[in-house]
């Protein structure tokens, strides 16, 4: 097997995907666990506001296989999730439903705390893991970047089509960080990240997938479209390549 073959993520299954992992309760959260449980690499994969979507679970499996890692997808929302029909939040009713969810189960400050407590149990449960990375999709990207500052337990982190993206968040980073933005993220925030990461001395990558929409690697991924499937694959391969540099 060539090195190039070693670095290829498994084939993506557009429809009827069968997850490769199993469900456990860890840190009081139902958690999807995939990959090698005695791996030296661990990744916490934080889903978007739509929760445990098949496309997100398959992405976790791809990373686990490509990096020979253990990948955890905790259910922070405890069985709840935002509904696709709430977006765009263009009516008073939709706004009320979305804001109610964001202020309770999907509270970002609360879930940053949950993540930073949960990682302590992950470290105990998977003692062979030498370094942990964190990947956040949309909503999860905000939780991830806010967990990547001083005294972070992570060695590397990533945001994919980040939700509520603010350049000020990048100023607090203390670890290498990669952002894969869609065409829908605010250009000013993306440029702000570039400026900050470009001079912080830590390192990072900011790339915009300019033909993709917000959510193309998570619950809103369209794996039936030729272009969107290719960009889903490219995105997960790019995250894997970046994480490999800092987790091995």
UniProtKB/TrEMBL annotation:
One of its GO terms (molecular function) is hydrolase activity. SUPFAM superfamilies: alpha/beta-Hydrolases. Residues 30-244 form the Dienelactone hydrolase domain. This is Dienelactone hydrolase domain-containing protein.
């Amino acid at each position: 097997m060539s090195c190039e073959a070693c670095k290829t993520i498994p084939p993506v299954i557009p429809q009827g995907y069968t997850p490769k992992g199993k469900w456990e309760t860890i840190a009081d959260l139902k958690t999807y666990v995939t990959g090698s449980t005695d791996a030296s690499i661990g990744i916490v994969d934080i889903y978007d506001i739509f929760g445990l979507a098949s496309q997100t679970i398959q992405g976790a499996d791809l990373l686990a296989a490509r990096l020979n890692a253990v990948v955890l997808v905790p259910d922070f929302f405890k069985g709840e999730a935002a509904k696709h029909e709430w977006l765009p939040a263009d009516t008073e009713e939709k706004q009320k439903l979305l804001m109610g969810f964001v202020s309770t189960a999907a509270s970002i400050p609360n879930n940053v705390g949950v993540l930073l407590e949960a990682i302590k149990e992950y470290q105990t449960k998977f003692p062979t893991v030498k370094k942990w990375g964190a990947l956040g999709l949309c909503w999860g990207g905000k939780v991830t970047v806010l967990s990547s500052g001083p005294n972070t337990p992570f060695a590397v982190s990533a945001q994919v089509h980040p939700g509520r993206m603010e350049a000020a968040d990048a100023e607090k980073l203390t670890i290498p960080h990669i952002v894969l933005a869609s065409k829908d993220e605010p250009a000013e925030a993306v440029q702000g990240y570039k400026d900050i990461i470009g001079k912080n001395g830590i390192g990072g990558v900011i790339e915009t997938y300019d033909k993709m929409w917000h959510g193309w690697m998570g619950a809103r991924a369209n794996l039936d479209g030729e272009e969107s499937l290719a960009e889903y694959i490219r995105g997960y391969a790019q995250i894997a390549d970046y994480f490999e540099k800092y987790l091995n």
